[in-house]
Predict the structure.
Amino acid sequence: MTRPMHLEDRILFVDGEAIVIDKPAGLPVDAPRSGGDSVEARIEELSLGFKRPPVPMHRLDRDTSGCLLFARNPKARARFQQAFERGEVAKSYLAVVDGEIVEEEGLIELPIAKVSSAAGGWRMVVDEGGKSSATRWRRLAVADGQSLVEFRPLSGRTHQIRVHAARGLGAAIVGDPVYSLPDDAELGGMTLPDSGMLLHAWKLVMPRGDKPAIDVTAPVPDRFGRWLDFL
């Protein structure tokens, strides 16, 4: 992975209690067990004069770009956490899926659970005994066997949008190395295609009571190519 620019250069919003950055695709939030670059390893780049480094309030997959919110002090962290738990945070994702979606919009409600094996690693699967999850979606454009879709998750499960696209819409996100395959496929040694995964955390709105809400949009990256013309 090419080392991304300084994280300070990717700030979309900052004030005394919050920072939102446009996280680049390919950079994990947490330090990988195998080592390597991460937001966590470079968190001092976002201290901006504060003694205490900011704390990420949610996670994005390594290969997902876009809005990532941090709290800059303990009081803000507690308030933001409560807002997430109450479902008050609005998040919108853009994705290109591998299929021509006929319907214009809908709601996917599928419970998902984590499964793992020594050979294939872990993934999320649809499981009636799993955690409930719901995602609203809206088709934005269709071309050449693919669709540009906006996803609005109503819950915050791991890999939720990726699973809901592949198993709910029946159209995996383009470039997804895991959910474009059947659930019983071996995953060991798989890598992303050169174009990367076409999933982007596009918008985030965090309510803050009497203060103006944090309302941020992350520019859609160039890897979306022709789909930029539909936005």
About this structure: The chain has two helices and twelve strands. Residues 74-85 form the longest helix (12 residues).
